[in-house]
User: Fold this.
Amino acid sequence: MGISERREREKQELREKILEKAKEILIREGQDNLSIRNIATAIEYSPATIYLYFKDKDEIVYELMEMGFGKMTEELGDAFELPDPVERIRRIGQGYVTFGLKNPEWYDIMFNAPQPIQHLHKCQEEWGYGIQLFDFLVSTCDDAMQQNRTRKQDPRLVALHLWSTVHGLVNLSRSQRLEMVEQNHNDSLIQRTMESMLQCIFN
Assistant:
């Protein structure tokens, strides 16, 4: 390995170390305690070194969210290729819930951690994994409408309805609030709720 390749590898390793430590701080101490200085202290580098890789903590948070959405996209896998739009939606919903329950730390970073306004603007401006996933869900809802599988309406609102339901199920399950509805049948209740939602919307 040449000098330039070694340096590039070392840069990549440090960048990953910065992100991993930021993730730990974000999960353990919350976003109020996530700062360039705290990350630098944790990895035993100067704050100036962090700024060589990220312009501010917002960019770090954005990168972590993109990493989480990338992992979710990988796990959804074959669901994107299913020809039937309703079955596609069903499998995406199942994959979403499974990811959220198996990866609570990533899920909180992606959906439950309060984000600074600069980060929200960046999400709107850039075509990241999160926006791609939502837009794919919107287009799938539109496919179902074109096939007369549901009444014609704004597909973005239908997609938001679907997303809100699965997001709520993940959070209710993680906080054990579903036990108030039906004890000891968490997985079954989630699946039956999702199926009921699909039957109400699609035919």
DSSP finds ten helices and no strands in the chain.
